[in-house]
Design a protein that fits this description.
The protein has 92 residues and is mainly α. It contains four helices and no strands.
Length: 92
C-alpha cells in the first residue's frame, strides 16, 4: 500500500516517511524484550531515558526506545482496564 501512496508523494515527504518506517521497525523490534520486564523495570528504563537526554543524548537517539516503552506501558494499563471492566460487568 505504501508503495502506491509513495508514487504520489514529493521526494521530501517520501524521505520523511522512510524515517518513520525505520523508527517503527525499531520500536517493533524492542517489543518482545520489553514485555518480559516488570513494571518497576519499565519505570527504571524510563528514568534512564530521561537521564540520557539530560546528559546530552538527542531526542532522536531515544525516540524509538521511548515510543516502545510508552506502547508497552499503555498496553499493560489498557489491558488491565479492559480486564477490570469485563470482570466487573460479569460479577453482577
Amino acid at each position: 500500500m505504501f508503495k502506491t501512496v509513495k508514487k504520489f508523494m514529493p521526494d521530501h515527504q517520501q524521505k520523511q516517511l522512510k524515517k518513520y518506517e525505520r523508527i517503527t521497525e525499531d520500536v517493533n523490534a524492542r517489543e518482545e524484550g520489553l514485555q518480559t520486564l516488570t513494571d518497576d523495570e519499565l519505570k527504571e528504563k524510563s528514568h534512564d531515558l530521561k537521564y540520557r537526554v539530560q546528559e546530552g543524548a538527542s531526542i532522536e537517539d531515544v525516540t524509538a526506545e521511548a515510543f516502545a516503552l510508552v506502547r508497552e506501558a499503555a498496553h499493560r494499563v489498557l489491558a488491565c482496564a479492559l480486564l477490570t471492566y469485563n470482570f466487573s460487568e460479569h460479577c453482577h
